[in-house]
Amino acid sequence: MLKSLSFKPFFHSLNPITTVPISTPKSISSLSTLSLNHNSSTTSQQTQFTVSYLITNFGFSSETASKASKLVQFDTSRKPDSVIAVFRNYGFSDSQIKNIIRQAPDILKCDPYKRVLPKFEFLTSKGASNIDIVEIVTRSPRILGSSLENSIIPTFESVRMFLPSNEKVIERILHCKHFFGHFHFIRNVKMLLDDGVIHSNITFLLLRRPSILLTYDMRNALDLVKEMGFDDPTNVNFCQALLAKRAMSKSRWDAKVVVFKKWGWSDEMVLEAFRKRPLCMLASTEKINKVMRFWVNELGWDSSALVKRPEVFSYSLENRIVPRACVVSYLISKGLIEKNIELSTPFGVNENVFLEKYVQCFKEESDDLLKLYLEKMGV
Question: Taking a C-beta distance cutoff of 8 angstroms, is the pair 90, 134 a contact?
């Protein structure tokens, strides 16, 4: 627990001003020596006080407190006490305050009514609750060091351009750890707009994965997506491709390509599937293997059929792929549909269309088909 803080007034006694002779170099030298000694002594006292304060109030180890004292020093508890009081007033717990101070110790020497409170009040004015503020600051204390006028407000207003309400902006900020503290978002949004990306596609990125808009190398990402064949920035596929490429490292991307090739795809087929449905590359290597294993080994179907419907890798194996595949397999075995049909088609339609086209239209078999389908669904 943090030590209970008191707010006693602090007074500094002033020594009488003395006249120092300055007529000779020796006197100047003496004054300089006295000044250096005094400054050194003052600094040492501040360091000792700061280390002691951090240990006593936050339970820091001596090593952690010493490291923090290199970033912030104070010789009275007036400012740090007032900072902690503001945090507590907004509902921050002792452990949360400790974590914030560990990451941003210099906040203890600020005037919280000028540096901290205005930021909290701004977020409150935009609909953030105290709980929201605690969450935002705890996740990323860098907001405390950001300029309200030059960073926080412009960033908030930029996000608001693409979302219907302040509440939605707060929601997105809560989903992204480092929304404040840098200018990447504003810069990246301008870059996207200049490249022809429309508002609705930027909204898509904000709603799906806002961290994409904070990337430091957006220019490279945009150029790469264009090189892969996405040449229409007004198409949602353009931003889906951007999301897919920025959501994973090159090593993870390459690992997924290796898995696809293991099941018979070529590099060209992987690229074709990606161009059709970019989000298919967000499926894990484990999911890709499971779908392919069921499709090829259990059903005996050609893996190349999935190049035309790569969104299948985004579907639930248990709730969609297996139940529908069993119905289609049954229809093929009974000669009710041709084996050379586009096998992936039944998986891309919604459930009502699937039931109408692959269950209900076969009058004599519909009961058995529905029973099979529901059984595989676990109903």
Answer: yes
Contact 173, 179 (CB under 8 A): yes
How far apart, in Å, are the Cα atoms of 125 and each of 88, 115, 138, 167, 168?
Answer: 19, 17, 19, 11, 14
Handedness of CA 203, 207, 209, 215 (dihedral sign): positive
Residues 6 or more apart whose CB falls under 8 angstroms from that of 176 comprise 210, 211, 214
Domain membership flag for residue 307: yes
339-357 pLDDT, tens digit each: 666 778 899 899 999 999 9
Q: Would you call 259 helix, strand, or coil by DSSP?
A: helix
Residue 283 makes CB contacts below 8 A (sequence gap 6+) with 256, 291, 313, 314
Instruction: Quickly list H helices, 277-338.
Output: 285-292, 322-333
Chosen domain end from 204, 224, 247: 247
The answer to whether 369 and 330 have CB atoms below 8 angstroms apart is yes
The number of distinct structural domains making up the chain is 2
Q: Which pTM value belongs to this model?
A: 0.76
Same domain (yes/no): 373, 257: yes
